[in-house]
Amino acid sequence: MKFLRRSLFGLFLVSVCAALLFGAGYNMYASIKEKAAQDGFRPPARERQFAVNAVLVEPTQIKPILSTFGEVLARRTLELRAPQGGEIIELAEAFQEGGSVKAGDVLLRVDPTDAESTLRVAQADFQEAEAELNDAERGLDIAEDDLAAARGQLDLRVAALARQRNLADRGVGTESSVETVALSEASARQSVLSKRQSLAAAVARVDQSKNGVLRAQINVAEAERGLENTQVIAAFDGTLSGVSVALGAILNDNEQIGALIDPNDLEIAFRVSTQQYANLTAQSGLLSNLPIVASLSMADLDLTAIGNISRESAAVGTGQTGRQLFASLETSLGLRPGDFVTVRIEEPALVDVALIPSAAVDAANTVLALTPDSRLEVVSAPILRRQGDNVIVDARAIAGRQIVSERSPLLGAGIRVKVIGSETQEGVGASPNAVAPEAEADTDTIALTDDRRAKLLAFVESNKRMPADVRARMAEQLKANEVPASLVTRLEGRMGG
Question: In the chain, what are the domains?
Answer without folding.
Answer: 86-111+230-261 (2.40.50.100), 114-228 (1.10.287.620), 431-497 (no CATH)
